[in-house]
Specification:
This protein is of the alpha+beta class. The protein has a single domain, classed as Hotdog Thioesterase (Thiol Ester Dehydrase, Chain A, Roll), CATH 3.10.129.10. A five-stranded antiparallel sheet has the order 1-3-4-5-2, with helices on one face. The termini are close together.
């Protein structure tokens, strides 16, 4: 189990590659963002995106899954107090393979809850061409290691 003490500034977590499928883009869009560029290849080609494109919110959801698989699922995470910024830099198209990294920017113990650390991180998601498609700066609350417990 990863605790606050395991998140020094500069530590990096790598994301496992995920290939984006057309049916997943359409299913997400049908439920949450039914704009033409997210609903069909033709709708995407008629837009400035150039093809069937994932909603930015879908890209964010895929990033969240990569974060869970990359470190959150193995951490004493208590959730997040919020996102500082979320940028969608490039369209995510059907067939793209996403990966990337998450890097610790800052870590401090909470003043009001000293058993919790607040870790600020930056997630950068890239496609198969190593082009940045999304950047997210956010905080994660992570429990400190119990006294006497060894890493």
């Amino acid at each position: 189990m990863l605790h606050f003490e395991d998140f020094p500034v500069g530590r990096q977590f790598d994301f496992k590659p995920v290939t984006v499928k057309a049916e997943d883009i359409i299913a997400f869009a049908a439920e949450f963002d039914p704009q033409p560029m997210h609903m069909s290849e033709d709708g995407g080609k008629a837009s400035i995106l150039g093809g069937l494109a994932a909603s930015g919110w879908h890209t964010s959801a895929m990033m969240m899954r990569m974060l869970c698989d990359g470190y959150i699922g193995q951490a004493a995470s208590e959730g997040s107090p919020g996102v500082d910024s979320m940028e969608w830099k490039k369209a995510v198209l059907s067939g793209d393979t996403l990966s990337g990294t998450c890097t610790v920017l800052e870590a401090r113990v909470s003043r009001s809850r000293p058993e919790i650390g607040i870790v600020r991180l930056r997630a950068v998601v890239t496609n198969q061409k190593d082009e940045t498609v999304a950047i997210c700066d956010y905080a994660n609350m992570i429990r400190c290691r119990p006294t006497g417990e060894k890493p």
